[in-house]
Specification:
It is a single chain. This protein has 125 residues and is mostly beta strands. It is built from 1 helix and 5 strands. It has a domain at 32-105: OB fold (Dihydrolipoamide Acetyltransferase, E2P). The chain is elongated. The protein starts with a helix and ends in a 20-residue tail after the last strand. 10% of the residues are buried.
């Protein structure tokens, strides 16, 4: 009859160990980074946006179906329309993979539109 208390004690220890494991909380921290540059190519076969780089090799970013593309005013633009335009890319890094969440097309800073108007006043005497 001594076997019954031993089995009960073992069952209690196993159940206690199982419930103790439920307190584990996994914390994941992600940070979003931005990069400003000009898009040189969009490769739909590889789901990549290729940015021109002043420092040498072009930089590749991965886009997904959740990636949004907007202009400076927040209007939606097409992925194809961003080629050869300055953009700000919002992305997260996972190892060597940079996944884009948002692309904002900006106006070129050096292309200020200047309008001049010349008027001539003619007086009748």
């Amino acid at each position: 009859m001594k076997a019954l208390p031993v089995l009960t004690l073992c069952g209690t220890l196993v159940a206690g160990a199982a419930f103790a494991g439920t307190d584990v909380v996994e914390k994941t921290t992600t940070s979003e980074t931005t990069y400003r540059g000009t898009v040189s190519q969009v490769d739909p076969d590889a789901d990549t946006i290729i940015m021109k780089s002043e420092s040498g090799a072009p930089t590749r970013y991965i886009y997904t179906e959740k990636t949004t593309y907007v202009d400076a005013a927040g209007n939606t633009v097409t992925r194809e329309s961003i080629v050869n335009h300055p953009v700000t890319v919002y992305y997260t890094r996972d190892g060597d993979r940079m996944t884009v969440s948002k692309v904002v097309v900006s106006r070129p800073e050096d292309s200020t539109v200047r309008r001049e108007r010349e008027t001539t006043t003619v007086e009748k005497r």
